[in-house]
């Protein structure tokens, strides 16, 4: 009897080094590849011009193009995942379902329901590790517990890696065994946008495996500069791979392999960042409560006193703090933000504007092209001091110092706040301290073309310290 498998792809939109797909192909005579646009997720998106949707559709079209070369094609559905998988399994007479594991609370519940229903039909379900390098049970402390501090976790991760991974796996996919799902061979962009009721947008960042690999190759040329350059947004010398890794256009193993090609410090620090990614995935998997609550429960008692008016100004990039405004305008326009800037704006929202980290997290989730629940939650809770191994609450970023240190010439600020572009090197960080002569020469009046600071940093810092102290006191 011939065996027909179904590989359900979700946030692993590639055809090479794909754990579930490689196994489905290996164990079957033919394999269909299915992607489902999940109604539960898409119906929550108010804006029908969504960057992530655009990125996913481009990724799917790229896969379709590659599959067509093997006379194969994707199955794409829009609906409730359990119902769609059951329908597809029946329609295509599937023997077994294959997919890579996902560690987000919603995804875990969804996958449990799908597994139950598929098994009820008498079919097999096989799941695989692919999205992370190590899952939660693979890097444990001496008491076989999950690490709650990053540095020892990283050391154990590296030790485990050195002891067990003489060769990093590459899950080869024999695409000749992929099946043809329809009579009309090629999917078009219009087909997909029509299917889900979204509208195409034009964005600079192009999705797909080939673009991911190109981005990786470009970054590798500068990887040795990563250590000293990674904190300066205007240099743009980080990898910019996060949207690709988030959608799985690139495998995590490929990134790790690249980090090991050289022994310089830049490569080692880059690998550490990738280990942070595993760390936050483990935390979300083991402590799903962090999705809604502070990792440190005491901080759930904080009474955030910031106003919704200030929140709106933060979102719009109109706070009167140039580095914050430039970062937020960049996010709003491109869907991306440099890591240093994420830390600055998150610290500013929580510890200067005294607004709950969950509001900022939600805003990032709506805007970021690389939005990933584990990393975003981890980043926000780190910045707000409420998270696992977070910075202590009394460490409060001074936005002016951060700006002078990490955008010394104001190059990044000038790109996104062009009204400030004629201010001096000093006043680009503090335009409200410039005198009227400078404002006339810069053709920018503070309070008119650019706002006064909406709050006074020093006073807010005192309030933040009091607010945190009160919560940890009891
Ligand atoms: C408030 C806040 C929110 C964040 N939200 C997200 C998010 O939604 N999605 C996301 O991928 N990252 C998030 N990060 C982490 C980090 O900012 C981005 O991963 C990074 O800016 C992506 O740029 P890059 O690909 O050039 O990174 P590089 O510096 O080249 O790093 C390589 C890869 O390592 C991973 N990585 C790097 N730093 C971190 C980190 N601190 N935590 C987890 N993984 C990391 C990413 O996958 C990244 O692509 C957030 C950080 C903060 C402070």
Element order, helices and strands? EHEHHEHEHEHHHHHHHHHHHHHHHH
The spatial strand order of the largest sheet comes to 3-2-1-4-5
- Mean pLDDT across all residues, rounded? 96
Which CATH C-level class of the largest domain is it? Mainly Alpha
Termini distance? Answer: 67 Å
Mind telling me the CATH superfamily name of the largest domain? Answer: DNA Cyclobutane Dipyrimidine Photolyase, subunit A, domain 3
In this entry the ligands are:
flavin-adenine dinucleotide
CATH architecture of the largest domain: Orthogonal Bundle
Number of helices: 21
- The fold-level CATH name of the largest domain is DNA Cyclobutane Dipyrimidine Photolyase, subunit A, domain 3
**Largest sheet, if any?**
5 strands, parallel
Quick structural summary:
The protein has 474 residues and is α/β, with parallel strands linked by helices. The chain contains 21 helices and five strands.
Describe this structure in words.
The protein is α/β, with parallel strands linked by helices and 474 residues long. The chain folds into three domains: 4-130, Rossmann fold (3-Layer(aba) Sandwich), CATH 3.40.50; 132-168 and 209-286, Alpha Horseshoe (Serine Threonine Protein Phosphatase 5, Tetratricopeptide repeat); 297-473, Orthogonal Bundle (DNA Cyclobutane Dipyrimidine Photolyase, subunit A, domain 3). 49% of the residues lie in helices and 7% in strands. The protein has 21 helices and five strands. The protein has a five-stranded parallel beta sheet with strand order 3-2-1-4-5. Helix 14 packs across helix 15. The longest helix is centred in the middle third of the chain and has 22 residues, at 265-286. The N and C termini lie far apart (67 Å). The mean pLDDT is 96. The structure holds flavin-adenine dinucleotide (FAD). Residues 230, 238-242, 245-246, 273-274, 276-277, 280, 338-339, 342-343, 346, 364, 368, 370-372, 375-376, 378-380, 383 line the site of flavin-adenine dinucleotide.
